[in-house]
Input
Amino acid sequence: MADMTGTALAPQLYLQAQARWRAIEVAFWLATLLPFVLLPNYLVLASQIAITALFALSLDLILGYAGIVSLGHAAFFGLGAYTAGIISKFGWGEPLSGLLVASILAGTVGYASSFIIARFRHLALIMITLGLGLLLHEAANSAHWLTGGADGLQGVKIWRLLGRFNFDLWGYTAYAYSLIVLFLVFLVARRLIHSPFGLALRGIRENSVRMPAIGAPSRSHIRTVYTIAAVIAGVAGALLAQTTETVSLEVLSFGRSADVVVILILGGAGRLYGGLIGAIIYMVARDQFSGINPQFWYFWIGSLLVAVVIFLPNGILGGLAALAARWRSRS
Amino acid sequence: MSAPVLSTRGLDKSFGSLVVAKNIELALPKGVRYALIGPNGAGKTTLINMITGMVRPNAGQIFLGEDDITRLEPEARVKRGLVRTYQINTLFPDLNALESVALTICERRGVAATWWRGLAGYREEADEAFEILSSLSLGSVCYRRTRELAYGQQRLLEIALALATRPKVLLLDEPAAGVPKDESAELFRAIAGLSQDITVLFIEHDMNLVFRFASRIIVMVGGRILVAGTPEEIAADPRVREVYLGEAGHG
Output
């Protein structure tokens, strides 16, 4: 069985092999460049996918790896979006520093709320994250003077990227910008997952009761990962605000929090590429289904979700991995 | 005899009207192998839960060496060398054995919060993990996920996790529970072979194992310590006989 490949290997070589880049990963990232040449009309969509993928990646760190369920993750996405939008409205539209400020603010709020999050699990956690999300949504709704409330934030103006690249109507700059940020953050997340901390997160997911008994400060680990996830979600939100030059209340909505959970479960939670694959499938499906049937596209998304959860409980990537393992053991 | 490594003073605990611990006084000198026995519901596991901080006592104190640890969090007690295993496998099902033990070692060495450096860079930790697993004859299955390990191997992994914390005091809650007879003796030989620096208190129902491996036996009944003594003293004690034979009489 599987131990034929394993037993001969020294522990360190095994760990190195776990973290090694695989050919399929390189192929995946090369394929993300294809839209520039093959689908130049879909670059706006591609940039939205990259942003959603980044958002899903941030949720994967807490939900997929540490097992911390959140139904209010849009709070940090929205914070990032509003921060980037508002500072540009007040005269500072430089994108990279906007991204930085947005991520710092989202991270600060994430760190503050992590003290509550780290104390709860399961149903209580779902309710708390849901409540915090709704709270922020209503706060933004009522702070009309700052956020524009239900009318959306008016007057977002983003400067040229690096002083050179205009955010064009076709989405060239938007997609290149989103993709580069996604890739850089992905590299950080990938390193994190293969670090001792990444192992500790999986430990929390697998058995949070056992963690104290091996001397692990689970709560402090949870605070760290929750803050990191908030920073990344903030970056994703800021990217959306900057590339679309609009911010509406939708960025803080329950719908966005729920969608990102759906995306992660579709793709495969607890896998680095789960959120990315999920985002591609979900966004493309939404684009296609809403083209066919603008009113009922959620029907198809719902069917897709039910089918995946029934037939591929570990998501699409989980199913593919199981298939690959079976194929390998046969050959 | 030297000063006790682990001691308790007047530990009380009750859940509602159910008294599970009443005035528990323990003293474990360094390096001993003590057994804690008693009928089901005597409060043995609750005592371990209190000592390791999983359950707060209503009254009393717990000392590790000279230090009062009654109010410390479980993970802080582990850091000081007070470690337990569980009666029912309490492991990390989706991690493999090497990862589980390496995680424990990373926590002990304070590097588990490091997220910017790859795990493969921690060679000493990985080698130590492999060494511990090999010493418990788990080396050949160390890349297999915990859920795929045989039950006996999972029991050994419980002990491997405890050893990886470098314990001073090890509390084993029925380490051989559910393990076939021939394998359980082997498991106890591994426990008996532990370094003499480690103080061990184990709960066990199999009297053959208890009398073979314990240097001293503590008998608990109804939340109280009935008697404590050498295996010979316990074997000859009429009260102990009554508790066990009385129980057998009902069954």
In short: The first helix of chain A runs from residue 3 to 6.
